[in-house]
Design a protein that fits this description.
214 residues; alpha/beta; Rossmann fold; five-stranded parallel sheet; 8 helices
């Protein structure tokens, strides 16, 4: 049986790294076999591209160039890690996927959605997450949290207005695909957020395991 694809989305500072650990613990408790990965990145070549994308630099990076780099990393990631893992019957838990591109490059940078969709079709065709956990929080709060971490990367140095646009794009996608997205209020205390994440994962796994084979 093919594995299931779980993604976590949200702007900087919403606690995705912490909640990846919650998803991991929940899947382990349920006896699922899985692999955890991230975007951009996940394989050696894709991680090299990640470094290019995130590094602060004096030279301007056009939105179109950023978009192409994201999908170059994703093409490698899908072909060399995500698809083989799912085909082998293991779940994949990924910190961000194509929803992030619609949100950051589409919503944040203003890249035409049609361009994102065209590259999505080329890069991973019909492959879509089975469950997407959107950790949502007001950008002012999330960015305040993010500043407590190490030096900012190129995205973390963006303006509040940029992240407001990113958040709006994320919420629009969640509203358009309620069957796939679970929106979790990440402004709540950590224990409550973690409980909501674990509950969403458990509910989805229970639904998957009770599906009638076609």
């Amino acid at each position: 049986m093919r594995g299931r694809f779980i993604t976590l989305e949200g702007i900087e500072g919403v606690g995705k790294t912490t909640q990846v650990a919650t998803v991991r613990a929940t899947l382990e408790a349920l006896g699922r076999r899985f692999q955890v990965t991230r975007e951009p990145g996940g394989t050696p070549l894709a991680e090299d591209i990640r470094a290019l994308v995130l590094a602060p630099r004096a030279e301007a990076v056009p939105g179109s160039a950023e978009l192409l780099l994201m999908f170059a990393a994703r093409a490698v990631h899908v072909a060399n890690l995500i698809e083989p893992t799912l085909t082998a019957g293991q779940d994949v838990v990924c910190d961000r996927f194509t929803d992030a591109t619609y949100a950051y490059q589409g919503g944040g940078r203003g890249v035409p959605v049609s361009d994102v969709a065209a590259l999505e079709a080329i890069t991973h065709g019909g492959l879509q997450p089975d469950l997407t956990l959107l950790l949502d929080a007001p950008p002012a709060l999330a960015l305040q949290r993010a500043k407590r971490r190490s030096a900012a990367d190129r995205f973390e140095a963006e303006t509040l207005a940029f992240f407001e646009r990113v958040r709006a794009a994320y919420l629009a996608r969640a509203n358009a695909e309620p069957h796939r997205f679970v929106v979790i209020d990440a402004a709540q205390p950590l224990a409550i957020v973690s409980a909501a994440v674990a509950s969403a994962v458990q509910a989805s796994v229970n639904a998957w395991t009770t599906e009638t084979p076609s």
